[in-house]
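for the writeup, i need someone to sanity check this before i put it in the appendix. the sequnce is what the collaborator sent (i think, or maybe the updated version? ugh). structure was predicted straight from it, no edits. if anything looks off just tell me and ill rerun, i have time this weekend
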Amino acid sequence: MPTNLAAKLAEQLSKALIGKPEVVRLLMTGLFARGHVLIEDLPGLGKTTLARALARGISCDFKRVQFTPDLLPTDIIGTSVYRQEGGTFEWRAGPIFTNVLLADEINRATPRTQSALLEAMSEQQISAEGETRKLARPFFV
């Protein structure tokens, strides 16, 4: 991303999250380094707004997952669904198949569900039902 586009993105993000330039800087650093960012803050202080603004600013898809103790790995990565009319199984991708994913309250998820997210973050792919599926580029959590 050329410098002028980076500056424009930083400006857009700063408008979305007023008064937190360090968070914006770290978010952009994670994006440009092709890494991920953990933002810890109180509820209602703009994390979702910032993630949506980032996705909009780089013209990418955005999804949010609220992690809970009953969330299963298949709830985030997807699963095959049986189609009666054809007698076949059809892959239904989960919300992890997006560009910008807001993983909210990941500490509340079970270790198996966290592991599915961590695999996606480190490998840029998921393993499900004996198959490996590549994630979108960019993929940013």
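The longest strand covers residues 78-83. Residues 51 and 68 are 20 Å apart (CA to CA).
thx in advance!!
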